[in-house]
């Protein structure tokens, strides 16, 4: 299968897992693109900042794209900045358009993707081009992801070596591991 999802437990667990996988693959020179998220924690009374790192950018131009908004300490609404998310999705779509990447990593299939935006069109672009896709999916969004995937996604164990093995198998050749 060319589509997989992973869910790691604990707050930020999937972010940390995908960041480790993405950074290791970048260090190996893998032809990939996508985003991984870093959360900048302050203290328990304040929500973290959420930043995306665009994988495979090389020049660092797309490092640290802020995707969270500061809505104040008492805010209960979604603090995702849709403009930041769309900027990251645009950078990844441009990388895919070069034809170089053979793997797309998306840190989260979230509300934006469920509603048809965010990285959803980029995921479709990648799959249509034969690029393998790995998505982080939270437990509450799993049913929507499964509807999107139509039974064509593999669920991976939340272990860096397992996820790396899946990624490397897809990177080893155009028809590998299908």
Key attributes of the depicted protein:
single chain, 178 residues, alpha/beta, Rossmann fold, seven-stranded mixed sheet, 19% strand, globular
What does this protein structure show overall?
The chain has 178 residues and is an alpha/beta fold. The chain has a domain at 3-35 and 83-171: Rossmann fold, CATH 3.40.50. The protein contains six helices and seven strands; from the N terminus they run βαβββαβααβαβα. It has helices spanning 13-27, 82-97, 111-114, 120-128, 142-149, 160-171; strands at 3-6, 32-40, 49-55, 65-66, 103-106, 132-136, 154-156. A seven-stranded mixed beta sheet has the order 4-3-2-5-6-1-7, with helices on both faces. A hairpin with an 8-residue loop joins strand 2 (32-40) and strand 3. Helix 1 (13-27) crosses helix 6. The longest helix has 16 residues, at 82-97. The model has no long low-confidence stretch (mean pLDDT 83).
Give a brief outline of the structure:
The protein is 36% helix and 19% strand. It has helices spanning 13-27, 82-97, 111-114, 120-128, 142-149, 160-171, and strands spanning 3-6, 32-40, 49-55, 65-66, 103-106, 132-136, 154-156.
């Amino acid at each position: 299968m060319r589509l997989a999802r992973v869910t790691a437990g604990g707050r930020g667990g999937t972010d940390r897992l995908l960041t480790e996988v993405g950074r290791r693959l970048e260090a190996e020179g893998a032809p990939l693109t996508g985003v991984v998220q870093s959360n900048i924690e302050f203290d328990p009374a304040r929500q973290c900042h959420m930043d995306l790192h665009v994988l495979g950018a090389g020049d660092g131009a797309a490092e640290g794209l802020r995707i969270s908004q500061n809505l104040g300490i008492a805010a209960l609404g979604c603090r995702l900045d849709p403009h930041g998310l769309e900027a990251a999705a645009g950078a990844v779509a441009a990388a895919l358009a070069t034809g170089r990447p053979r793997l797309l990593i998306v840190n989260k299939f979230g509300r934006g993707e469920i509603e048809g935006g965010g990285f959803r069109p980029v995921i479709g672009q990648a799959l249509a081009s034969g690029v393998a896709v790995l998505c982080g999916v939270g437990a509450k969004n799993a049913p929507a992801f499964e509807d999107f995937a139509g039974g064509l996604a593999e669920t991976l164990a939340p272990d860096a070596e397992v996820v790396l093995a899946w990624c490397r198998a897809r990177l080893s050749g155009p028809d590998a591991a299908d």
